[in-house]
């Protein structure tokens, strides 16, 4: 179950018995786009921008779409959204708008049918397939973290890509990360990148995956940062030296420290963990 399957699962749960057209209008997207995301026959996925926008519109926590639900009770916000427009509510709206000629006994049967609980459904290759959302999640509190094809050089610098592409996602347990001493506010602040070169060895070896917090965009104390300098991308230790300079330090003792100007240095993230178990 990759992150897009998790998002589709949560999207189906969020929509519930609401009209897809109404949801699409509320979320600022074309109904056809929403249908493509829900369809099992297309490869259209729920992207980061749209997921965050829907979360904001519905008052859901940022990153809600990316979490594997443990049970229906794990998402009271989704239940609240669904309850706003139940099937009975939608039928009442329909009858109020265009049901003047419908006999009273027919109106009552329609309302009674709408109020009966129906099993959740998801689009299938033929018709619809029943889906059981009461089962526990597949893996405890684990979440998916995007692994981007950003090569941050730990030597002479790497020219950054204009549009970094995503590699295979990493599935981790936020609780386990915190138990290992990794400090972060929310798991959706975390991304994976790859370090290249030997200048940060033995702490970071060539091509080690690095867990970074992309919300840290300024110097927050001595540590290892992902930053750009002179249009090159680096992963290095930074120390403040005076008011206007950083000391750029390599853990490899064969590489001498350098001084760089604060004004010419743009911090993009802070490295929290190296995927070889090395503390930073």
UniProtKB/TrEMBL annotation:
It comes from the Bacteria. InterPro entries: LexA-like (IPR039418), LexA/Signal_pep-like_sf (IPR036286), Peptidase_S24_S26A/B/C (IPR015927). Residues 177-271 form the Peptidase S24/S26A/S26B/S26C domain. SUPFAM superfamilies: LexA/Signal peptidase. Keywords: DNA-binding, Transcription, Transcription regulation. Pfam families: Peptidase_S24 (PF00717). This is S24 family peptidase.
